[in-house]
Amino acid sequence: MPPADDAVQDRTDASDGDAKSAAPAQAAVADAAGDPIRERITELRVSANLMTLETGIFCVFPAPGSCAPDPMTGLPGVRVTACPGLAGRPDVVSISTFRDDGWLDNTAALVRVTDGPAQVLVTIYQAAGQPGENAPRLQVLRLTGDEPKAAAAPAPAPAPSDGPEPDVMAHIQATGDVPGQFGEWIGTRGSRAWIEGFGISDRGPIPACDMEYQGVLGRGWLSPWVDNGKFCGSRGMALPLLGLNIRLKGETEKRFTVRYSATFVDGSAVGPIEAGNSCESPGLAALESFLIELVPKVDETAGGGSPAGRATSRTSAPRGAIRPGRR
Predict the structure, then answer these.
(1) For 99, 118, 184, 263, which has the most beta carbons within 10 A of its beta carbon?
(2) Burial of 326 from C-beta contacts in 10 A (0-12 / 13-18 / 19+)
(3) pLDDT score, position 57
(4) Distance between CA atoms of 103 and 79, rounded to whole angstroms?
(5) Predicted confidence band of residue 306 (pLDDT cuts 50, 70, 90)
(6) Strands across the sheet with 185-186, in order?
(7) Nearest C-alpha neighbor of 163 from the set 105, 107, 204
(8) Is the sign of the CA dihedral 323, 180, 186, 168 positive or negative?
(9) Is 59 within 8 Å of 217 (Cβ atoms)?
(10) Averaged pLDDT for residues 207-220
(11) At a CB cut-off of 8 Å and minimum separation 6, what does 260 contact?
């Protein structure tokens, strides 16, 4: 990542002097223990930079054309983490990544700074033989420039009930995780409380990996596809989703079609939208509530055109809904 003026400080490059000085130490340990440790240690080319950010919400992501990570080693890889020392003010920094383990892996990191300036640590890992110019080039997009308001403490999750296991869950501003079912609205229409993320169960009518979905982050900009059973979006970052996109796969795609509708904090309503098209408002307002419907396909091989599965559609889109969308 090319350093920005007065914003990024080069901290270390393990491929240079540090790596050379570490080699004798490794050899000494191997000799002392009588065990070929060096044969079990792979040196990496590592560079780390401190990035200074002002108050706001930022997205850090690989620039188009960056070298894709090797599917076996995951290298080159990038991590964005809070600084280890107090100088970086980690207490005012929140970092959310689309992967649970923190690696970007051609995705993005969302960074929220509540009281800037503060710093984050950006570390790039490469195989020892990879040239430095193959390191991922990162871009930083400022999503909000105003000072983020402190998020209200989310309400505790609803206690388990004797009813069916939720098909859908959404994390809603100042509320927390809210469960629901296919064919029901998730979130409250007209509340102006935005949705920060959502997930769809892999233990309900949709088997694991038979549905995937995205969150709309900006115009023409969607999050990576994630499979059902995983969370899409963020929690506690005061960063709303601007819409959603859903599609089916596998056997479920043969039996069902999926459509979805949504309302937004600007009062607009969109849908129903067909699978594979983003559901978003014309003004890209924050997502307020959404409805996901599974509609059985007609089995043309059965007499009388019987449906191929059980319907999970219970309610229609809001009155006056419109139908923009794109693939």
Answers:
(1) 263
(2) exposed
(3) 80
(4) 5
(5) very low
(6) 185-186, 287-296, 256-264, 269-274
(7) 204
(8) negative
(9) yes
(10) 88
(11) 244, 246, 271, 272, 273, 279, 290, 291, 292, 293
For residue 129, the cross-strand partners are none
pLDDT tens figures, 240-267: 889 999 999 999 999 999 999 999 999 9
Domain ranges of the chain: 8-144, 168-296
CB within 8 Å of 3: residues ≥ 6 apart = 9, 10, 49
Q: What is the mean pLDDT of residues 85-95?
A: 86
Q: How many C-beta neighbours within 10 Å does residue 130 have?
A: 17
The one-letter code for the residue type at 174 is A
Tokens in use for 24? 């004798």
Q: Residue holding tokens 């959603």?
A: 244
Strand partners, 142: 58
pLDDT tier at 184, thresholds 50, 70, 90: very high
Window from 102-106, 205-209, 236-240, 323-327 with minimum mean pLDDT: 323-327
C-alpha dist (Å) from residue 244 to 85, 139, 197, 215, 229: 38, 24, 10, 5, 16
Q: What is d(CA 200, CA 53) in angstroms, rounded to the nearest whole number?
A: 34
Instruction: Using alpha carbons, list the distances in angstroms from residue 308 to 177, 254, 266, 302, 303.
Output: 32, 9, 38, 9, 12
